[in-house]
Write a structure and sequence with these properties.
It is a single chain. With about 210 residues, this protein is α+β, with helices and mostly antiparallel strands. It has helices at about 20-25, 30-40, 50-55, 75-80, 135-140, 195-200, and strands at about 15, 60-70, 90-100, 110-115, 150-155, 170-180, 185-195. Strands 1-5-6-7-4-3-2 form a seven-stranded antiparallel sheet. Strand 6 and strand 7 form a beta hairpin. The longest helix has 11 residues, at about 30-40.
């Protein structure tokens, strides 16, 4: 059953439930076209896999970096809407971390899929055996959209990978963290749009289709 999201507190500092709040301080520093790309991709609904493949003009290449069991962190449980005693109980999940490649040599997306063990029942067990299959092929096979709760986040990192506040030598990644209600099973999917992704745009026609 999908946990309720009646809590108004955000699960992690630096996360926003409204895209307007995330980009408020970037409107003056980013070109309007780039800002529009960022907003449209972070807020796109349905299968991100389908939109990425449309942009790339080819199937996505999936590079797995981790698959296995891990214990959920307190922040992850808050993101998924767990409350009360559930926050203090240990909870295991199957976690899959991948890089997604479009039509470039550098990855476009760093993604993490998090499946709490109570959600991996019945047909949902297939989510542990995706291998190199994009998860969008499974989640959106029979439906175009899923009920969800979404948070947005921006990470600024220096060339060495250290997080920084302001640095001309830094690179910015934009993330969305979406809790999907998939047949009444909560799944948390985090997608970080890497600098290579937004650098790949060359004309306005590469925006995703209207939602």
């Amino acid at each position: 059953m999908m946990p309720s999201h009646t809590n108004t507190a955000l699960p992690v500092a630096g996360m926003y439930s409204r895209i307007e709040d995330l980009i408020a301080f970037d409107q003056a520093s980013l070109e309007s076209a780039l800002l529009q790309h960022i907003v449209d991709w972070l807020t796109s609904n349905g299968s991100l896999t389908a939109l990425l493949e449309q942009k790339a003009g080819r199937p996505l290449r999936v590079e797995r970096t981790f698959e296995g069991y891990r214990r959920l962190t307190l922040a992850q449980k808050k993101q998924m809407g767990y409350q009360g005693a559930s926050l203090n109980r240990p909870m295991m999940a199957w976690i899959r971390e991948v890089y997604l490649y479009g039509n470039s040599t550098q990855p476009w997306i760093a993604a993490q899929s998090l499946f709490p063990l109570p959600s991996l029942q019945g047909n949902a067990k297939r989510l542990q055996h995706l291998r190199g299959t994009p998860i969008g092929y499974v989640l959106f096979k029979r439906q175009n959209r899923l009920p969800n709760v979404r948070y947005f986040q921006k990470t600024v990192a220096s060339a060495s990978g250290d997080k920084v506040e302001n640095n001309q030598q830094s690179s910015t990644s934009w993330s969305r963290h979406t809790v999907y209600d998939w047949y009444r099973r909560p799944l948390l999917i985090s997608e970080t749009f890497l600098p290579e992704f937004f650098a790949s745009f060359s004309n306005p026609n590469q925006l995703p289709e209207s939602k």
